[in-house]
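LOG
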Amino acid sequence: MSLPRAYIEHVAIQVKDIDWYVRFFAEVLGLGIRAELAAQPHIGRQVWVLGSVQLISNPAFQGPEARLGHLGIMVDDYDGVLERAAAFGAKALPAGPNWLELPDGLNIEILQANQGSVEAALAIDPRA
């Protein structure tokens, strides 16, 4: 049996001033906006920065505790990962079957990757 392959696609964090963070990622690192979602009744405005983080607006946030929202994890075996996670005791969250809560409260979002993309991402040497 071969092991599944995966990588962290994004990390969701709460920020007090989302516009400052958007400008920082764009102007300092050249990372533009991949997607944006207006504020909802249960959560503030959200911005996904290309290739990195998901920013969640929370003007009341004082930091640093509870900053992390969730880890978005790209996988090459979506159904298998969800099956193994359930057997491991991960709890499904109301957001959907691919949203899981781990024992200490860490939330993860499982995302099916396009064929070959996980291997391509894992082949990148960030220190080369």
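LOG (cont.) second protein
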Amino acid sequence: MRVAREQVGRIAELACLALDETERETMACTLNAILDYVELLERVDTSDVPAMAHVLPPWDAMREDEPGPTLSPEEWLDHVPSRTGPFPMVPRFVEE
């Protein structure tokens, strides 16, 4: 499968990217190189490779969940840098 400059232009348009002709050509070459590599990987014989769910063993995912000491709400609020009454103050992150 080859990617043409026109297809790159359409993808760029959908992604709201402004690409000039040189950038479209470069992007088409890059995408085609990626697709060529994927095609090469598809030809690799993996019939003797056992299936696996994770690359690394889940060494910490299966640990026992052990309850530990917790802070009371009053102790927790003592560590809050800024508060109004019993409520912690946090920075505003939603613009009006």
